[in-house]
Amino acid sequence: MSEKSSVTDDIPRSPIFIGVNGPQGSGKTTLVSTLAEKLRQPPHSYSTIVLSIDDLYLTHEQQSELAASHPSNPLIQHRGQPSTHDLPLALYLFSDLQQGKVTKIPSYDKSAYSGQGDRVPKEEWPEVNRDKTHKTEVVLFEGWCVGFRALPRDNLVQDWEGAVREREKGHYVGRLGWNRLEDVDFVNEALRRYDQLTDQLDALIHLDAEDPIFVYDWRSQSERKLREKKGSGMTDEQVVDFVNGYYPAYELFTTRLRAGAFDEGKGRQLRLVIGRDRRVREVVRL
């Protein structure tokens, strides 16, 4: 696709890639499922698939190796932050889908290893584009960090120092200020490589929480449902530790995303501001 399209343009012959960003438990899975179903039905009838960045996490073994190689960095001791995804696999998928090739879509089991998670064996991955008359026309690429852009290091240091000062005052509710600068810097540098994916998006929908602190409750609710469905998953205490590892990224990268993930092209991003009840409070077009 040589030129990026607005959300309302006709679907091009190669698939359009629409990113969907939202905090854990914010309702992006429901939004994506509903959007995919609408696109598949008349009058659109677009062949639509959903690709989650969660399904691109490193295998359990690879994640364990990453954590062990940086034992003092709490941000990468479990899946979540930039650096814990298989970027070569993601780029391979994007390329094959753009070319209309027969493509296996990865799947990840978050309940494996008592909630630590692991990739499902490749032979169990669903396949698309086998039918040459029904090629993929829309890819909905969803995930909590889809569209995030790394900060210039000076800005990163400034934000981190500000968080540390707030923590020292005793009124701080975030997590950024509790982490070492070198650990946050590691994640920020890893995120730069994710531009290879963001730059290929034609449009982005951003579910933006009025207060990111909502994510603790939302994630707890999601894990309870997972335990009921699969019999395993994180406890409420484990959820707090888990979200703590994500939360600095919300503090660092959400402001940039609110301003727009794309440097060029108006009308390519939709920001939906949601409250604790996940209801939309405001709609902003960028």
Automatic annotation (TrEMBL):
<feature type="domain" description="Phosphoribulokinase/uridine kinase">
    <location>
        <begin position="17"/>
        <end position="143"/>
    </location>
</feature>
<feature type="compositionally biased region" description="Basic and acidic residues">
    <location>
        <begin position="1"/>
        <end position="12"/>
    </location>
</feature>
<dbReference type="InterPro" id="IPR006083">
    <property type="entry name" value="PRK/URK"/>
</dbReference>
<keyword id="KW-0067">ATP-binding</keyword>
<dbReference type="InterPro" id="IPR027417">
    <property type="entry name" value="P-loop_NTPase"/>
</dbReference>
<comment type="similarity">
    <text>Belongs to the GLYK kinase family.</text>
</comment>
<feature type="region of interest" description="Disordered">
    <location>
        <begin position="1"/>
        <end position="22"/>
    </location>
</feature>
<protein>
    <recommendedName>
        <fullName>Phosphoribulokinase/uridine kinase domain-containing protein</fullName>
    </recommendedName>
</protein>
<dbReference type="GO" id="GO:0005524">
    <property type="term" value="F:ATP binding"/>
</dbReference>
<keyword id="KW-0808">Transferase</keyword>
<dbReference type="GO" id="GO:0016301">
    <property type="term" value="F:kinase activity"/>
</dbReference>
<keyword id="KW-0539">Nucleus</keyword>
<dbReference type="Pfam" id="PF00485">
    <property type="entry name" value="PRK"/>
</dbReference>
<dbReference type="GO" id="GO:0005737">
    <property type="term" value="C:cytoplasm"/>
</dbReference>
<keyword id="KW-0963">Cytoplasm</keyword>
<keyword id="KW-0418">Kinase</keyword>
<keyword id="KW-0547">Nucleotide-binding</keyword>
<dbReference type="GO" id="GO:0005634">
    <property type="term" value="C:nucleus"/>
</dbReference>
